[in-house]
Structure formats: C-alpha cells, structure tokens
Amino acid sequence: MPPVPAPPERDLPLMRFIATVGTNGIGIWPRQAYETPVQRRTLLGRPRITVSDPEAVRRVLVENAENYVRTAISIRMLRPVLGDGLLISEGAAWRHQRRTLAPAFTPRAVEMLAPHILAATDVAIRTLEGEQGDVDLFGHLQRLALEIAGRTMFSVGMTRHGAGLRALVEEYQRRLGRPQLLDFLLPLGWPSPHDIARARFRRRWTATLDGIIADRGSGRTGAAQDLLDLLGEARDPETGRAFAPEELRDQVATLILAGHETTALTLLWACTLLAQAPAIQEALSEEALNDPGMGDLMKRLPLTRAVVDETLRLYPPAFVMARLSRGADTLAGHDIAAGTIVIIAPWLLHRHRLLWRAPDAFDPSRFLPGAEAIPRFAYLPFGAGPRVCIGAQFALTEAVLALSRLVARFRLALAGDRPVLPAPVVTLQPDHAPAFRLTLRGG
Ligand code: HEM
C-alpha cells in the first residue's frame, strides 16, 4: 500500500488550518471527510462545503457551472504567475480564449505532437544513461516536461531559458505561492504584504517570458506553425480584436505552467509507484518492448495507460478545485447560500470510502478494458464541464509515451527507505525529491 500521512481526527482550528493549507494542503481534511459525502464548516465567517457526492460534483462543475466561479484566494495566488490567461479568466474573456485555444488541443492535433514528445524523451533517456549512482529523477522529469511544453507549443527549446524558468517557478512555490492569514482576510483589491512581493516577482517573471517569446520571434516568417502563431493570428469573432502582446504572454505562462508541472508530477508518482510494484513494472516494460509504434496509442499500450490513470487517481496533481457560489443552490440536499466556498477535491474523491473498493491500494487493473465501470464524477483528475482541463489529451499522451520509453530502458527502484509522502501546496508535490536507482535493461 503506498504510504500516506494520517489525516487529523477532527476539523483543524483556524490558525492550524491556514498554516496547513500553506504547507500540506491534504492535511486539512479530517478522517471523516473520506467517509461522508458532504462536509460543512465556517471559516473566517464564510460558509465552506466540501462535496464528494458524484451527483453534487456534477451539479457544480457541469449543470450549474455558471453559478460557481474561481475564489478570491485562487486568483490572489495565481494571478502573479498566470496573469489574465485562460485558467483564471471568467465570462466573455474566458469564452474567447477557450474558443481560440481549443483547436490546438483536439486529439488529432495532439497526435501530431507525438514525435516531438518522443524526441525530447529520448534525449532525457540518453542523459539518464550517463548518470552515475543515485538519480534525482524528479529533476530530470521536470526538465523533460518543460522541454516538451516549450517545443510542442511554442517551438522553443528550453536549453537557454529552462533553468531560469524552473528556478522562478520553484521560488514562487516556496516563497509566495503559499497563502498567509492576510491573504484570506483582505479583499482582492487590498494588497497584502505578500501581494507586494508577488507584484515584484511578476516583473521578473514576465521579463523572462518576454525574453523567450522574443528569442523565438526573431527570423520567423510565413504560415502559422505552432500555438503561439495561432494565438497571434486569432481575432475575436465579435470585435475582431487581436490578443495584445501581454495577453499572449499570459497564455504562454498559463500553458507552460499548467502543463509542465502537472505532467512531471504524474510521471514522478508513476515511477514511485512502479518502483514499489516490480511485477507491474516488468509487465509494463514487456508491453513497451512489444509496442508496434503505430496506431492508437491508448490501444497499443493499455497497461501503461491504466498505470497512468491509476497514478492520477492516487496522486491527482490538481488535488483540489475551489469555487465561490454566486447565487443560492442545493447540493446533495444541503442549501448553499450565495458566497459559499465549495470545495471539490480529487484527492478526497479518489480515495473515498463510499466510492472505491480498496481506495488506497495501487491497482491499475481498475482501469483496464473490461473492468467494472467507474462513475464519471468519482474520478476527476482533469476536472469536468466547461472548465475541464484543455490539456488532458496532451498530458495523457505525454505521460503514456514517456513512461513507456522510460520503463523500456530502465528498471526503476527507490534508493532509500524514506517513504515518499505527498505534501501539496498548489499541486500534489512530494515531501522530498526521492533518489532513484536506475538499472539499464538489456544493456
Ligand atoms: C496530468 C496533467 C494535468 C492535470 C492533472 C491537469 C488538471 C487540470 C484540472 C483539474 C483542471 C480544472 C481546474 C478547475 O476546474 O478548477 C485543469 C485546467 C486547465 N489545464 Fe490542466 N492538467 C494537466 C495538464 C495540462 C496541460 C498539459 C495543459 C496545457 C498544455 C493544461 C492546461 C490547463 C488549462 C489552461 C486549464 C484551465 C482551463 C479553463 O479554465 O478553461 N493542463 N487542469
């Protein structure tokens, strides 16, 4: 059974709750949250409800999605890095951005990116082959995911800018991306001391992104070749307006950030699980070696796909989705007043005692063809409804291809005994980057 930290016995008092959100977001849910469909509490005078009832989840994300918007705390934490990009925009601006970006993320469009994903993975594998002793696999996976995001979406290799970009992402996660008491207390228009530091960070962050875009821009002419070209050419169907340069940059920031950290985490958790399940790892390697290399990826590599699906169940990188209800509603028989914070937590849903058999066990067979059907709204690694992850197909393709290549080349084992525990803040990070021991197969 992959280890997890024990949940608290009851709801945390306010100050501990806020400290825990800033250091280990899954530690706020008491044991009872894994056993009941709905949990209510009040926080700083505001009602807050956590829903793990699939029907209520459907109501929030799909049926009555217009009633539920991003919360002030999410915007406060994310705007300094994402600006006004797709993830945190709302209303007409969001609709325009989503319509413009959608064609680049269809299954067909993503299929055409597979050769780039494979080429970047092969470079990462060659680098790993040259490593001696214990390996910081997470670091390699983060660089790989960033390289893939840069190459596939914006035609830029990350050799020059990757390290600087990663350093900024890590600095933000460590220092400014963790909410403090005043971030909860002050309304959005009132800057907290951390907001001032965040604004300063934003200036360095946008300068780095502008540098990447400028590098890529030099010497380019002719037909649209990648996502940034498409965005540059896009016009609002109603006003004919093009994206301004800073709006373009916010989309680049959003797609790079939302896309690479989550996929790197999926690969890390998959490798950690496989290191503890040698028989499944052998079967995966066998599947990779027999891969014909052509045709529908998910049909070619069903076990690898099932391992990725099960990894996303046990360790959903986007472990929580928060919404603010604009008007009154009813969820699972509970009255919801306007202004209620509604939490849907894939972490809880995916390990819920009422929804899964052996919820904490690593069992990819749940996702193999022919297995018992999984209720749609009990499994939400990519969310659902109008704001479902635009990059889901891209992420699955990347994770399945990269994992398959990795296990075909190496036997993966953890180098030490220290358990790898989730300790999430914005995404489901591990509490440390575990050292791996890689043995070449057939080499
Ligand atoms: C395993 C990898 C990934 C996971 C687990 C994941 C998860 C999610 C989830 C749960 C949401 C919905 C959030 C909400 O409703 O509050 C979301 C939205 C989003 N994701 Fe992903 N994502 C992944 C990869 C990607 C990739 C590769 C990209 C881009 C290439 C991407 C771009 C986005 C964007 C732009 C949104 C906002 C969509 C909108 O609001 O319209 N994600 N993601």
UniProtKB/TrEMBL annotation:
| Membrane-spanning parts | none
Q: Which SUPFAM superfamilies match?
A: Cytochrome P450 (SSF48264)
- Keywords assigned: Heme, Iron, Metal-binding, Monooxygenase, Oxidoreductase
Name the cofactor(s) required for activity, per the record: heme
What PROSITE patterns does the annotation carry?
Answer: CYTOCHROME_P450
Pfam entry (one): p450
The domain of life for this entry's organism is Bacteria
Q: Binding residues for heme, per the UniProt record?
A: 389
Give the GO molecular function terms. heme binding; iron ion binding; monooxygenase activity; oxidoreductase activity, acting on paired donors, with incorporation or reduction of molecular oxygen
Cite the InterPro entries for this sequence. Cyt_P450 (IPR001128), Cyt_P450_CS (IPR017972), Cyt_P450_E_grp-I (IPR002401), Cyt_P450_sf (IPR036396), Cytochrome_P450_monoxygenase (IPR050121)
Which Gene3D superfamilies does the record cross-reference, listed alphabetically?
Cytochrome P450
The similarity comment for this entry is: Belongs to the cytochrome P450 family.
> What name goes with this protein?
Cytochrome P450
Organism lineage string: Bacteria, Pseudomonadati, Pseudomonadota, Alphaproteobacteria, Hyphomicrobiales
